[in-house]
Write a structure and sequence with these properties.
Porin; mainly beta; 13% helix
Length: 194
Amino acid sequence: MKRLLIFLFITTTVQMAMAQHHQPMYKPFKIDIAVGYADPQGSGSKAGFLAAVEPKFAIMEELAVGLRMEAAITARADASGAAGDVHANASYLATGDYYIMRSGFRPFVGGGLGTYTFASETVKVTGGGTVTIDAANLFGYMLRTGFEAGHFRLGLEYNFVPATNGGNIKNGYFGIKIGGFFGGGRTSQEEKQQ
């Protein structure tokens, strides 16, 4: 009986010590909000503005999954280089970010998969006439890197989206984002240790 009590005491003590050691440093839920610059592919296309909201949940300290909802306001161009009107195009992606470091300055790499929605546009072709760029809902993916420091976030992203209109319209775009996030700060235990 005495050995059993000693065994239970040691086991409980080790488990409590391990639980304290593995206490999460950050709160698991956060919402990223960002604005930035969007540069579409294709000669003659016009760069513009983007805005995004992305709720996330950290399934472990180093890995967060989320849903990125973004609007990119740009003008696409056809193969001749003639640009269309400026339109807001939307994307909805399931995302994942892997954080390379666990403390204050946190570089990350990540990506996402989902749908991109493009509005129809009319392009004035050099020499007269017009070409219509059809509206499209396309499946694509995104790769990104950046860092977080405090509640500040900087990200570089490339959105890989298939071409449309027989390959004449390139839909991919590069984004530079600056923003912040609500939630996701250090846990109260981590704040006390600082």
